[in-house]
Amino acid sequence: MVDQQADEPAQPKFKRIVLKLSGEALRNTENGDPIDGDILQTVCAEVKKVHKLGVQIGLVVGGGNIFRGQLGAEHRNVDRTTGDTMGMLATTINGLALMDCLEKNGVPVRVQTAIPMDKVAEPFILRRAVRHMEKGRVVIFVAGTGNPYFSTDTTAALRASEIHADVIMKATKVDGVYDKDPMKYDDAVKYEELSFGEALGKRLKIMDATAFSLCMDNHVNILVFNMHEPDSILNAVMGNKVGTLVHE
Ligand code: UDP
């Protein structure tokens, strides 16, 4: 599906992206292993294909496969703020797994954390993050925004705004945005593209409200796509029709 001219290789449509990966995407749904080695390798191989094209990649990873603050508060008698801190630490665990796997695949990486932990990773420093990307290093942003009551979708919106990313690529289990849940309804219709206003008007849940409004206010487009389809990030970056683009 990747377009290639005979004499001149096609150029990527996006130069700098934020890839948002949910923690759940790393889980083995059959045996419950929160970080599955094969899934991790598949994800990193897909990232490598895009990195090879010279695309600058910021990766924001969630922590839902390990801990979510709200659930901690509801089911485990853990205070929401404590739970959120645990959730942010969970994103750090996932980020370190991705770092290691990407390095094993020959992709240079730096991890930057919003909660300082100097034995583990660099602190988040915007200019340093941009410099890493300019030098061809994938930057993995962990520990969310560093604040409770936020999500890693909001982190992706924030980091994308800060680094002036061309797009947030949000990996989900389905291949785009539908008018109703395609897992439940056979007649669900997929949108090829949508404006922020249309998504709001139709009450489509693309990200949580904080993340969505941050993207809208800062003109950051969102591409919702299915990461489990081979070459999906590559195709999206090359401008081929993949998923649903939510735009201004
Ligand atoms: N979290 C937080 N502040 C942030 C980002 C995340 O407190 O800025 C916590 C929150 O408890 C959240 C958890 O970290 O539930 C894991 O993040 P998220 O739920 O976004 O992960 P995902 O659903 O993408 O796996």
From TrEMBL:
InterPro entries: AceGlu_kinase-like_sf (IPR036393), Asp/Glu/Uridylate_kinase (IPR001048), Uridylate_kinase (IPR011817), Uridylate_kinase_bac (IPR015963). The keyword Nucleotide-binding applies. Residues 15-226 form the Aspartate/glutamate/uridylate kinase domain. The keyword Kinase applies. It catalyses: UMP + ATP = UDP + ADP. Inhibited by UTP. Pfam families: AA_kinase (PF00696). Catalyzes the reversible phosphorylation of UMP to UDP. This is Uridylate kinase. It comes from Ruficoccus amylovorans.
